[in-house]
Structure formats: structure tokens, C-alpha cells
């Protein structure tokens, strides 16, 4: 008797369905369900824009413009709630992956909804500010999608089954060995090792972290200045090389993590600015009706 | 001549001695160390000791309630002194001779103590192995290291290459300011018995010169401040002020058996045979406490009291568990007394026939009694359940055909059912209803396993019944017990270690096998590589193809983990098929499916051998990582995982603020990552040794720890996957809104240790560290939070038999 399918409803049936599942990325969630929803939304909006005779001209102030504006505003507010959804672990049949999927595709559809809402009227005013902010948010979001789709594999490959704590531990172990191995060295060479050991592993600033280039790396510097004659020197060089490799792994890990997260530092503040500009846009529109 | 000599001063021995003192009975309490209650004494400092089961009343002259180790030991020391108990420290018993009324207890130091009766309360810790060389009695040898920080300026030699020895050596050498010269001796060339992480630390310490490691070296003679060593290159003396011997311990069984005391079976888990007054098969010697099979402190203390009362002639004393049993029996019809019910269960249920009243009482404490009306459902098909039922009165009907509930097979009074869940850990195979008014006993998994280990008769009976039932269930409707009787008689249970080959491709043997517990993997040799074909969970059968069409074996089947298979002789199987055309038809249909898979692989082997390889290797990786015993496992696709740790945060936020999974830790193959998270094993290792029996399998198949956990840490040590942590429940965090708007509290996910510690100190209530593990989000609508909270679809929880299917190769899931 091979595995049996169960009848009935409830947690057991849910669990059986779940246990039968497979890895499917947020982009391909449920056969691109949200892509199709977004495409349908955009298609309807474009069709409406072309078919409906807006007087005096297509504009955010026509009834169709208001409709598009309301849809767009609603979408933006809902999309910004992803941050809350992610952190509020309530009970119920929700999946953050489905939310992310919808967030990506509906967010992209805003390009069409928002642009049609402007009626292609751009100017130096708070309305256009909101539009531009929205586009910037979407552009940073597109970067995020690309990063999420391409970077994780290299993050995993670089990790080599080590946890962050283990990487730091490995470095500490090398450092302990270096310290005792460097005892017989000459003053100048010993100073090189002391510098390498004393340098903050995480120093180098945001640029170094994002590019993975650390020109001031004291370990690389020590390797350059170390002689290779005596047995003690050779031991230290071997250890310094191990240290350089370990540092490279940690730095690569930091770099990929930074690339995966950097856009959020723009995406989220811009979203807050966008919501503020949107509120100003809506209030001013109603004020000057 | 004392009236009674009590050996061992743990909770059981202390309580017995206090009772004897209170009754004015002449007594002596023998303790081999220099303090009372050594097992609890050796707990780590400040450990919170629990008092379970809470419904059991304490009957003792000394007090005990949950609290810190120090408080409890303090109260005991004080009360033992207050009762004027005659304590003898440093009194290690070497042997006991004589008979009831005149025992001679020989101590290691040569002293002999005479007593009329002996109470053994020595627990199960055993005695450390002594060094086997001249000078082994030297005072510089110690068998335990409490605080490595105590020793300064000494030459210390650690003997023993296990984890305990390595940890002691590293501890002694940790602080250079102590200026100790630490040497560790290893009889062999490598440290095979220790954990890899410990060995790595030791080797590092050796490279740095902090510890001297001597391989292939044994102690030859212990002298004054000197230790003579046998090395590969001859003898050598080293300076030595202290020797820490960590060469394992001897279980107390040999010591006990030397007194002529019989155990219930040769199984390692067996206990001494005892009468209702705790008397062993050697009259005059009584056994109580953990050695008698009762590991909990309250049980031990009650038995200490009871055994002295019995010795004092009080034979009317009812055991302290009487009210608990009375409550258990209260829901049964007929208004019978506890004695009457014990009599009914012991007499009517076949597998309980050989038990003593004491054993029966204990078994019933761990079991539930049920009364069912005719037609009432006892359990349903596909429900998880690892308990076994025994019918004391009445009979039940098993619905063998899921499609037609009217087809039933009866099980009569005295027999058992539900044993499949016990053996294979799988879900219930059929719905069982009461056929007439039924009184049944439900034995928890641990109680049932203890019964099988202590009663060989019960083990044999359960074995035969389970094979018969498994055959009947496997081959579906239409078969009767008479049909399968010849097969049952010729069936043989075969143990298979992980990786052992059961069937070899190309061989022409003809037996049929049923996977009884564990799981199998099926492989086929394509070219020079084995290709993974399928995964067979417990309850599957294999090997029938060769029998039916007389061909050679078409694939190799080997055990994925330690397993048990039932071997059925091919001829018996053929006879059964010949007599049952319907059965033959089903077997042929099954065979067609397997043949199709084989043919598919053969046809595609050139086209996508790369994909086949990757699939085979991934399957092999998962099996190597223990997926073969999992029922529900968290797998992360690292091509999708962005490392946000939202899974861990979600886990912490849905469970008292502590995460039960470690995303980063664990093995990875081809971007498939098995994080450190519970797999809900079919036969959970964590359940093996839980004193309060707090680890259970829940209604959704989850293995969980209930609130009776005493924080002993056994489960954490027993789990081979490191998924159990010991921690105190953290204080409540400010709400998410407060964090988002005002930045108060540590935010979503597990609060950092420093925050938890500070907050807990502010609240001022010390909480015990208890075992916590994944409960598969039981009782939380929506299912596992880790999966729901994954933003990219990297985390899934799956069952291995569904994940490891060959269809993976033929259809791209994404």
C-alpha cells in the first residue's frame, strides 16, 4: 500500500496538499496568476482610455480620470501594506509569497494606470511630483525583483554551508593561530600582522561593501610586505592567505546581502514620500475643485 | 545489625531513610560520594528542578516542590539532619552477600555492614570505569570535573578520548592564567567516539600548544606526582598531580545481577522483576526509584516511603497512585474498585498476563481507559496515532475496505489493535468501531514499548499479530486470517541497518518483503551509475515482480535508515496469489506501474542523463540527511532564498517569541538546503528518554512537547538533527504597531538574548529553561508560519515520499 490520499476537510487535508507541494518562485506563483490580473487591469484601462470620449481632453479631472486615480491610489495604499503583512504573523490561509507576487505585478501595472491618469499632462507641480515619485518607487522595485531573481543562487554558493557565525568563528580561529605564529617575526613584519589582526573586518564603508573592493585591506598589505625566507615567515604567509580567503567569503556574503537590501533603503523612504505627495495631490485637487 | 540498609541517597533513598528514622527503625543510608543525592547535585548550578506529575501526591517525610537545585538540596540536607538519619558517606558498596535476615554489605574500603533487609535505590547512572593499571586507587584520580576554573599550576592528565574527556581537557586549558599543563591520553590514533566539533577544537588547542595530546598511549602505573605511560615507543613517565579519568561508566545491571536478582528480559531497557512490595527475586533485597523503572522524583520519594512501610509490616498501605488509578477507572461502567479493574485487565488482556501487580499499576498510570458504546468509532483511518489498544471486555470491528464501511473484520476480547502505528509510526490504516460494549485500554507509545521490553511474552504476541494484520491490510479485502496464516508462520522479521541492501539488481532470489518500519530506496544501475527510482515508506511491499513472472530482480532496494522488513518466502506468496485471483490482479496492476517507470528511465537515459544524475544525487543527499525517517520536513530552495530570515521571525512570533528553526545551519546540495528544523520523524529519537513522557505526536502528525516538560535536556541530546533548544519563555514584547510607530521593543522575530535577559530581570520571575521544538504550528489556522511567511517561495514543508517521486524528472514543477 503506497501513500494514501485522505478524504475530508480540515487541517489534515490542508497539510496533505502542502506536503505535496514544490518550490515555485513568487514570480511564477499559481501559473502567473497576478501577472494575468495585472495585464487584464492594464488592458481594460488602455481600452477605456481609447474608447471613452473624455471632454475637453483626457485629464485626471474627468470622470474616467477620477476612476483611474482612485484605482491607482487604492493600489498604492494596498501595495505599501506589504511591509505590515510581512511582519504581522497572524493566523489564517495567507501566503506572503502570493502577496509578493501580487505586489510585483500590480505595482508594475501602476505604470499604465498612473500614466493614463495623468492624461500625459506633465508640469512643475505637486501632481507631477507624485507621479515621478511613483515611477522612482517602481524603478527601484524592478531592481529589487531582478536582484531577488538572480542573486540568491550566488549567496548560497558563496556560503558553502557555513552560517554567518561560523564564518566569524573560522576567522577568529585563524587569528588565534596567526597571533602565536607571528611571535618569532621581526618587528616590521610583526607590525604588519598586528595591523591585519587589529583592522575591523567590517570597515571600508558602504562603497566597499557594495563593490567588494577593499583597497585598504591590512591583510592583503601584510601579505605583500611579508618575506618568505624563514620557516616562521612561511607559516605566517600560509595563515595570512587563509585569512584573506576567509575575509573574501565574508565580504562576498556582505556584498550580496547588501545588493539584496540596498534598494529597500530607497524604495521604502520613497514610498513614504510618495504617500505624502499623494495626500497633498488629493487634497489640493479637492480644494481647488 | 541494622533492620534495613538503604543503598543510594537520591530522592528514593533519602525518602526511605527519613521514613525509617521517623518510625524509629534501625537503619543506615549508604552514599558513595561525600554528599547526598549525587545525581541532582551534579545538575548545573541554578537549574530549575520540576515536580511532575502534578496530580501525584507526595508521600514522604521530607519535602519536595519545584525549585532551584540549591534550594532543594538545602532543604533535603537540613531535613535529613533533622530526622537524625544515620548517613554514611564515602560508602561505596562493592558486593552484597547473605540472605534475608542476615545480609553482609561489603564496602570498597573493606568495611562490612550487616542488615536484615536491603533497599537498593542506586538509580541508573552507574559507576565510572576505573583505570586498569597499578595505582588505580590513588587519591589523585578523580572521575568527574565540576569546575575547571578551580585548578592552578598543576600538571593534569585527562584519560579518555570521548566528548567528556575532550571537554574537560579544553576546559582546564582554556585560561592560560591558570598555568596548568594539560595532557590528554588516547588509546587509539584518532578520536572516533567524540563529536567532530570537539575534535577540531582539541586539534586547534594542540597546534597552539595549549593541550598535549598523546595518541596510542595508555596509563601504565599511577605513582606519586608521576604517571607512567605505555606509548608506542615504550614506557615514559610524565609529571602528574591530578588524573581525570573519563573512560565511560558501567550500567548498574551487572552489580545488581551479581546479587542473584533477575531482570524481566535480556533487553537493555529491562528492569528487575519486582513483587508488589518492591521485593526482587532475591528475598530481602528491594529495588526502588529509577532502577525500578520510575525516573521521576515524586515517584521515587513515594516508593522510598512505601518500601519502609512494607518492611515495617504495614501491608494494607495503598500505593500513592491509588487516587489517580481510581480517577482513571471512574469513567468505566460497572462501579468496580481499583483492585477489581486491575484484576480484569491483568486476566483478560493476553499481553498483560505475565505482569506483576506493580508493573500493571505502572502501565495503567501511563495509559488511558476507555468505554465505548456499540458502533462508536475508536479511531479513524488516516488519523495519526502511535498508541496501542487492548480489549479488556467486548470486541471491535475493523473497516478493512475504505470504500465500503460494511466490510469489517472482528477483533475479539483480549486481543490488541492499533499496533501498526506503534511499530511503523504511520497513520491509522483503518477505522475501528466498537462491535459491542467495549472496555479498552489505550497504551501510550512509551508505555507500550516499555511493556514490550519487559515482557517477552507480550513482545512475541504483538509481533505475530502485527505481521498478520500488516498482511491483511496490505492485500486488502477478501483475505481472511486463515488465508494468510501459512505466510505469517513463515514470515521472518529482518533488521536492516542504514544502507543495507535487501534486494540486488540482477539476482534471482524470490522473496517478497514488507517494509515494517523505516524506509527503503529503490535504485537501478544505468551505465555505471545508480539512478534513484523511488522511495518506499513503511507499509510498502517490494520484490513481488520477480516472484510473479520469474524474472531476475530489476532494481536494487536498500534501507534508507535503520529499518525492519518482513521477509515472506516467495513460494508462500505465490500460493496465496493462486488462491486469490483478485489479489493477483492487484499485484499485476502495481507491477505495471513499476515496469513503466523502469522502461521510461531506460528510454531516456541518453537524452537527459544530466537531469537524472542531479535528481539521483539530490535524492541521495536528502536520504543522507535523515529525510528517510521524516514525515514533514522544511526544505529551502536557495535559488529563491534571499536570506531575509522572515521564516525564523514568523516562527518566533507565532510561538512565545522563540524561533524553533535555524535557517542558515544545515546541509545544502545543488541549492537545496535542509535547515535545522524538526522533521517529525516516524520514530522520534527525542521521545526515547523523556522522564515525564511529555513528547507526543499530535492530531496533525506533529511531534510536540507538552507543558509537563521538566527541562532535563534528554531530548535535546537524543535528537540527531539538533533541532531542540533549551530556553526560558521570554517576556512579552511591545506590539508591532508600537515598534513601527515609536520603535519600542526589539521588533518582529526573536528578541536578542540581552533584551530578553534584561526584561526578565525587570519582571523578576525566574523561568525554567524548557525544551522547545517545532510543533508544525499545530492549532494555528493556516499551517506552518515559516512557509506562509516566506516572501519568495523558497521555504516549503513537504513529506519525503511525495517530494522524492520520479515524476520530478518528467514534469517541471515550476
Automatic annotation (TrEMBL), chain A:
Key words of the record:
Membrane, Transmembrane, Transmembrane helix
Q: Could you list the residue ranges that cross the membrane?
A: 34-52, 64-84, 104-124, 130-151, 262-288
Q: What protein does this entry describe?
A: Ferric reductase like transmembrane component
Say which species the protein is native to.
Erythrobacter dokdonensis DSW-74
Automatic annotation (TrEMBL), chain B:
- UniProt keyword list: 4Fe-4S, Electron transport, Iron, Iron-sulfur, Metal-binding, Transport
GO MF term list? 4 iron, 4 sulfur cluster binding; metal ion binding
Could you tell me which SMART domains the record lists for this protein? cNMP
Domain named Cyclic nucleotide-binding: residues: 351-452, 475-594
| Location of the 4Fe-4S ferredoxin-type domain | 632-664, 669-700, 701-729, 768-801
Q: Which domain of life is it from?
A: Bacteria
Query: Can the keyword Iron be found in this entry's annotation?
Result: yes
Identify one Pfam family in the record: cNMP_binding
Q: Which SUPFAM superfamilies match?
A: 4Fe-4S ferredoxins, cAMP-binding domain-like, FAD/NAD(P)-binding domain
The protein here is known as: Cyclic nucleotide-binding domain-containing protein
Organism from which the protein derives: Erythrobacter dokdonensis DSW-74
Amino acid at each position: 500500500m503506497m501513500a494514501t490520499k485522505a478524504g475530508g476537510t480540515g487541517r489534515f487535508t490542508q497539510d496533505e496538499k502542502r506536503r505535496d507541494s514544490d518550490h515555485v518562485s513568487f514570480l511564477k506563483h499559481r501559473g502567473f496568476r497576478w501577472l494575468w490580473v495585472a495585464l487584464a487591469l492594464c488592458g481594460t484601462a488602455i481600452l477605456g482610455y481609447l474608447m471613452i470620449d473624455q471632454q475637453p481632453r483626457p485629464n485626471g479631472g474627468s470622470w474616467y480620470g477620477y476612476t483611474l486615480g482612485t484605482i491607482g491610489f487604492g493600489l498604492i495604499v494596498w501595495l505599501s501594506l506589504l511591509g505590515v503583512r510581512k511582519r504581522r504573523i497572524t493566523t489564517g490561509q495567507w501566503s506572503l509569497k502570493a502577496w509578493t507576487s501580487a505586489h510585483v505585478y500590480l505595482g508594475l501595472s501602476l505604470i499604465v494606470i498612473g500614466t493614463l491618469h495623468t492624461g500625459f499632462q506633465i508640469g512643475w507641480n505637486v501632481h507631477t511630483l507624485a507621479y515621478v515619485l511613483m515611477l522612482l518607487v517602481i524603478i527601484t522595485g524592478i531592481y529589487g525583483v531582478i536582484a531577488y531573481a538572480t542573486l540568491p543562487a550566488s549567496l548560497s554558493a558563496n556560503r558553502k554551508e557555513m552560517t554567518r557565525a561560523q564564518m566569524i568563528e573560522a576567522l577568529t580561529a585563524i587569528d588565534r593561530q596567526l597571533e602565536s605564529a607571528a611571535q618569532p617575526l621581526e618587528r616590521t613584519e610583526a607590525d604588519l600582522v598586528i595591523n591585519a589582526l587589529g583592522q575591523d573586518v567590517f570597515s571600508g564603508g558602504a562603497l566597499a561593501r557594495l563593490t567588494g573592493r577593499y583597497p585598504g585591506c591590512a591583510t592583503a598589505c601584510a601579505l605583500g610586505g611579508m618575506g618568505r625566507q624563514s620557516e616562521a615567515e612561511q607559516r605566517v604567509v600560509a595563515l595570512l592567505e587563509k585569512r584573506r580567503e576567509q575575509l573574501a567569503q565574508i565580504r562576498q556574503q556582505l556584498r550580496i546581502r547588501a545588493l539584496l537590501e540596498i534598494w529597500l533603503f530607497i524604495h521604502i523612504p520613497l514610498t513614504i514620500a510618495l504617500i505624502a505627495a499623494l495626500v497633498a495631490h488629493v487634497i489640493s485637487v479637492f480644494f481647488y475643485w | 545489625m541494622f533492620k534495613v540498609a538503604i543503598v543510594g541517597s537520591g530522592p528514593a533513598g533519602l525518602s526511605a531513610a527519613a521514613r525509617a528514622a521517623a518510625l524509629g527503625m534501625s537503619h543506615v543510608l549508604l552514599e558513595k560520594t561525600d554528599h547526598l543525592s549525587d545525581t541532582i547535585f551534579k545538575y548545573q548550578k541554578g537549574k530549575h528542578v520540576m515536580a511532575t506529575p502534578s496530580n501525584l501526591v507526595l508521600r514522604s517525610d521530607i519535602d519536595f516542590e519545584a525549585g532551584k537545585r540549591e534550594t532543594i538540596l538545602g532543604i533535603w540536607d537540613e531535613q535529613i539532619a533533622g530526622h537524625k538519619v544515620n548517613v554514611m558517606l564515602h560508602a561505596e558498596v562493592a558486593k552484597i552477600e547473605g540472605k534475608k535476615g542476615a545480609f553482609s554489605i561489603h564496602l570498597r574500603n573493606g568495611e562490612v555492614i550487616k542488615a536484615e533487609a536491603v533497599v537498593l535505590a542506586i538509580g541508573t547512572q552507574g559507576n565510572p570505569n576505573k583505570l586498569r593499571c597499578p595505582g588505580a586507587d590513588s587519591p589523585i584520580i578523580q572521575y568527574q570535573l565540576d569546575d575547571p576554573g578551580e585548578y592552578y599550576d598543576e600538571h593534569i592528565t585527562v584519560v579518555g578520548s570521548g566528548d567528556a574527556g575532550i571537554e574537560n581537557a579544553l576546559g582546564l586549558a582554556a585560561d592560560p592564567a591558570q598555568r596548568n599543563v594539560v595532557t590528554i591520553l588516547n588509546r587509539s590514533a584518532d578520536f572516533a567516539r567524540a563529536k567532530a566539533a570537539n575534535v577540531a577544537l582539541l586539534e586547534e588547542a594542540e597546534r597552539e600548544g595549549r593541550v598535549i595530546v598523546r595518541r596510542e598511549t595508555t596509563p601504565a602505573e599511577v605513582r606519586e606526582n608521576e604517571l607512567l605511560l605505555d606509548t608506542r615507543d615504550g614506557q615514559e613517565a610524565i609529571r602528574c598531580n591530578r588524573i581525570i579519568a573519563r573512560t565511560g561508566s558501567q550500567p548498574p545491571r551487572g552489580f545488581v545481577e551479581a546479587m542473584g536478582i533477575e531482570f524481566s528480559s535480556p533487553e537493555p531497557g529491562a528492569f528487575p522483576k519486582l513483587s508488589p512490595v518492591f521485593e526482587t527475586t532475591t528475598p530481602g533485597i528491594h529495588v526502588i526509584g529509577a532502577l525500578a523503572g520510575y525516573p521521576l522524583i515524586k515517584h521515587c520519594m513515594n516508593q522510598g516511603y512505601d518500601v519502609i512501610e512494607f518492611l515495617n509490616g504495614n501491608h494494607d498501605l495503598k500505593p500513592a497512585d491509588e487516587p489517580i488509578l481510581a480517577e482513571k477507572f471512574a469513567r468505566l461502567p460497572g462501579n468496580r474498585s481499583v483492585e477489581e479493574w486491575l484484576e480484569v485487565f491483568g486476566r483478560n488482556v493476553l499481553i498483560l498476563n505475565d505482569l506483576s501487580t506493580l508493573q500493571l499499576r505502572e502501565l495503567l498510570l501511563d495509559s488511558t481507559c476507555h468505554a465505548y458504546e456499540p458502533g462508536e468509532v475508536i479511531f479513524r483511518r488516516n488519523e495519526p496515532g502511535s498508541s496501542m489498544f487492548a480489549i479488556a471486555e467486548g470486541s471491535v470491528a475493523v473497516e478493512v475496505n475504505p470504500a465500503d464501511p460494511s466490510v469489517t473484520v472482528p477483533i475479539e476480547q483480549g486481543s490488541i489493535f492499533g499496533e501498526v502505528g506503534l511499530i511503523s509510526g504511520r497513520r491509522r490504516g483503518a477505522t475501528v468501531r466498537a462491535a459491542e460494549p467495549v472496555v479498552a485500554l489505550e497504551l501510550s507509545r512509551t508505555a507500550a514499548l516499555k511493556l514490550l521490553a519487559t515482557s517477552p511474552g507480550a513482545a512475541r504476541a504483538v509481533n505475530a499479530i502485527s505481521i498478520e494484520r500488516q498482511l491483511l491490510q496490505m492485500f486488502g479485502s477478501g483475505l481472511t486470517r486463515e488465508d494468510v496464516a501459512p505466510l505469517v508462520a513463515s514470515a521472518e522479521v529482518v533488521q536492516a541497518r542504514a544502507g543495507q541492501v535487501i534486494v540486488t539488481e540482477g539476482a534471482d532470489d524470490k522473496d517478497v518483503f514488507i517494509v515494517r518500519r523505516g524506509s527503503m530506496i529503490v535504485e537501478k544501475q544505468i551505465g555505471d551509475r545508480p539512478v534513484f527510482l523511488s522511495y518506499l515508506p513503511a507499509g510498502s511491499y517490494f520484490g513481488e515482480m520477480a516472484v510473479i513472472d520469474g524474472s531476475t530482480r530489476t532494481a536494487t532496494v536498500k534501507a534508507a535508515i535503520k529499518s525492519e522488513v518482513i521477509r515472506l518466502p516467495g513460494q508462500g506468496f505465490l500460493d496465496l496469489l493462486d488462491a486469490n485471483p483478485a489479489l493477483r490482479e492487484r499485484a499485476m496492476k502495481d507491477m505495471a506501474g513499476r515496469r513503466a517507470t523502469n522502461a521510461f528511465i531506460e528510454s531516456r537515459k541518453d537524452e537527459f542523463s544530466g537531469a537524472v544524475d542531479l535528481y539521483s544525487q539530490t535524492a541521495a543527499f536528502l536520504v543522507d540527511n535523515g529525510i528517510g525517517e521524516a514525515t514533514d520536513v522544511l526544505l529551502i530552495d536557495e535559488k529563491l532564498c534571499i536570506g531575509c530570515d522572515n521564516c525564523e521571525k514568523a516562527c518566533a512570533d507565532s510561538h512565545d517569541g522563540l524561533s524553533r528553526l535555524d535557517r542558515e545551519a544545515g546541509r545544502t546540495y545543488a541549492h537545496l538546503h535542509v535547515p535545522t528544523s524538526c522533521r517529525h520523524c516516524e520514530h522520534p529519537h527525542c521521545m526515547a528518554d523523556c522522564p515525564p513522557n511529555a513528547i507526543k505526536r499530535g492530531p496533525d502528525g506533529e511531534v510536540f512537547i507538552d507543558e509537563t516538560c521538566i527541562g532535563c535536556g534528554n531530548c535535546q541530546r537524543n535528537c540527531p538533527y539538533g533541532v531542540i533548544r533549551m530556553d526560558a519563555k521570554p517576556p512579552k514584547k511591545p506590539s508591532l504597531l508600537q515598534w513601527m510607530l515609536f520603535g519600542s521593543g526589539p521588533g518582529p522575530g526573536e528578541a536578542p538574548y540581552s533584551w530578553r535577559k534584561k526584561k526578565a530581570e525587570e519582571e523578576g520571575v525566574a523561568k525554567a529553561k524548557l525544551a522547545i521544538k517545532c510543533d508544525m504550528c499545530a492549532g494555528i489556522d493556516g499551517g506552518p508560519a515559516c512557509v506562509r511567511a516566506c516572501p519568495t517561495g523558497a521555504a516549503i514543508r513537504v513529506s519525503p515520499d511525495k517530494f522524492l517521486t520520479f515524476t520530478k524528472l518528467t514534469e517541471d514543477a515550476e
